[in-house]
Design a protein that fits this description.
Number of helices: 10
Distance between the termini: 9 Å
Shape: globular
Helix content: over 70%
Order of helices and strands: HHHHHHHHHH
Structural class: mainly alpha
């Protein structure tokens, strides 16, 4: 219940609040400032984690996490949607996603090594300083090489309503997070859970690159619908079987099917951004986080 409450705050309530701050910063200051602040908020999370002895600090942890997430993802969607190459935007997304996955796989291993060498507190202290330097350097770099005029990020008047799609996406996000908690409970092993998560991410990374090229060439967004249908059956497997082997299989299947869903969706979404402007990014973010909040509330009342 505590973990679900944490998700409710970070990916729901606080995330909704952060969108309005992010929108103002992007439109009145700069996108590079927003992404640098994302790193600063991440440091706040690390500091709270380092001193997390009082359960009430989980609220502060969720606050920093929400702002770090939104200040990273929404600017990325704006840049790819507005400035990505129309015929290669899905491939550009897949390339960035590949880098993220590689870091998410290698990062925990390197972190474990440095924690063993330097100690837990020393590692987070050094890591926080490095992140601050990257954040400050990032502002300078982007201002010099990648400054985008503010007018590009001001929402245009035209608006296409995909409210149902974005709302269902929010519910899916909540169920996916709950499935992650359930998987952790059933495996009862941090190494097993981490290994399955890495295997799931690794199995997706190369297929993402291959499928993204087809989507850009053929505009075959229907692959996403097929992926969601398969995932619905995987969820059924997890929630009905409630058994570690079934869960391990489900994790691997999630990795295999994600290239059907994610490239299709983001290829479609970034083309919407090109057509309708920045407003649809904020519209999606608000609906996504609102219905994610609703999904977590449902699970808070389930036994």
């Amino acid at each position: 219940s505590l973990m679900i409450f944490y998700f409710f705050l970070q990916y729901g309530l606080f995330y909704i609040i952060s969108i309005f701050f992010l929108k103002w910063i992007v439109e009145h200051r700069s996108i590079e400032l927003a992404q640098s602040l994302s790193l600063i908020f991440m440091i706040g999370q690390l500091i709270i984690l380092d001193f997390l002895k009082n359960p009430f600090l989980i609220i502060v942890l969720a606050f920093f996490g929400a702002f770090s997430e939104s200040f990273y993802w929404l600017p990325k969607h704006l840049v790819l949607g507005l400035f990505g190459q129309r015929r290669k935007v899905t491939q550009q997304w897949a390339f960035i996603e590949t880098l993220n996955v590689i870091v998410s796989i290698i990062g925990p291993v390197l972190s474990a090594f440095f924690i063993k060498v330097f100690g837990y507190h020393n590692f987070f202290f050094i890591f926080s300083i490095v992140i601050i330097l990257i954040a400050l350097g990032g502002v300078k770099f982007f201002k010099k090489y990648c400054l985008f005029p503010d007018r590009h990020f001001r929402p245009r008047k035209e608006k296409l309503d995909f409210s149902l799609l974005f709302s269902l996406e929010g519910l899916w996000n909540a169920f996916y997070a709950i499935a992650g908690i359930l998987i952790f409970i059933l495996t009862k092993d941090v190494l097993a859970f981490g290994g399955l998560t890495s295997l799931m991410a690794f199995s997706a990374v190369f297929i993402n690159l291959l499928i993204s090229k087809r989507i850009d060439q053929k505009h075959d967004y229907a692959l996403g619908s097929l992926g969601y249908l398969i995932r619905a059956n995987i969820f059924t497997l997890i929630f009905l079987a409630m058994e570690p082997k079934a869960v391990a299989l489900a994790m691997i299947l999630f990795g295999i099917t994600s290239p059907l869903v994610d490239p299709s969706f983001y290829g479609f979404f970034y083309n919407l951004v090109k057509k309708y402007g920045a407003g649809i990014v904020y519209h999606r973010a608000l609906l996504l986080s609102s219905f994610r909040t609703f999904g977590f509330l449902l699970f808070l009342f389930f036994p």
